[in-house]
Amino acid sequence: MKKEQKIQKENVASKYDLGCSEYNYFIKNLTYDLTYSPIKHLNLQKYTMRKIILVAAGLFVSASSQAQILDVIKSTVKDKTGIDLNTPIKTKSTTGTTTSPKTSSVNLNSLTSTEVSSGLKQALNLGVTEGVKKLGVTDGFYKNDLVKILMPEKLRAIDTKLRMVGLGSLADQGVKLLNRAAEDAVTESAPIFANAITSMTITDAKNILLGTDNAATNYLQTKTQSQLFTAFQPKVKASLGKVGADTVWKSLISKYNMLTGQAVTTDLNEYVTTETINGVFKMVAEKESGIRNNSVMRTTSILQKVFGAQDSK
Known about the structure:
Elements: H1 2-13, H2 21-36, H3 41-58, H4 63-81, H5 113-135, H6 156-164, H7 168-185, H8 190-199, H9 205-209, H10 215-243, H11 245-260, H12 268-293, H13 301-308
Helix pairs in contact: 1-2, 2-4, 3-4, 5-8, 5-12, 5-13, 6-7, 7-10, 7-11, 7-12, 8-10, 10-12
């Protein structure tokens, strides 16, 4: 078999004799490979071009000799494979394409107040839905520094005094249970907020759209805080009893009064109701800011249309 291959190589070598033993050897082997080796054309073409460049650049011959050598090699490849090395290689791109979210090029002036109002309300509703979902779980308030309910300001002296006498754990438990009550009550707040958003009339919607990152949230809070408090307070009262916060706080305040001789009282229901509502508003504001500044978060056509119009503000 080796003898037969040698004879075949000698036969093809004479056709491309350049008078240079190194190149004659290269042409002889290249022509044999092209004739008898089962190599795929695209890979062969890439391989051959690399080999041509390396061989031509690697030997110290004149430019005219290099050109002659390259022409002979290209002719050899074309004779044996039909591949024209003078034709640029076409390769398929393997890079995946990513689709960027489309941003609206709608001019604000082409939007009606009703459309803008609808977009703003949808953003607020998304903020409420997602915010309540995040807050209405264990530690949703307690381990979120943005919304965590702290000791009421006028009772912080209680916290300090209890820690001085070794009752810091009781103070910690009191704070944790305020947050547990909020986490329990907030799960029932979504329909209350949704109703407030639906029934709200947005005046000057376009200016709100062009306002600050939380302009719509601020507008909602200004217009609905009072009605939200009234509707939500009974839910919080029930939750305070459910998690045992009212019992712990009675004990906590009683110990403080006994230690100081004072008669401190506080309305935990009012405090936790206000703080829970404020916590939801903070989450809504965060969502609104995201929709305004990140087109990926505009997941519906109305959000894309309305908030796309404020991108160039």
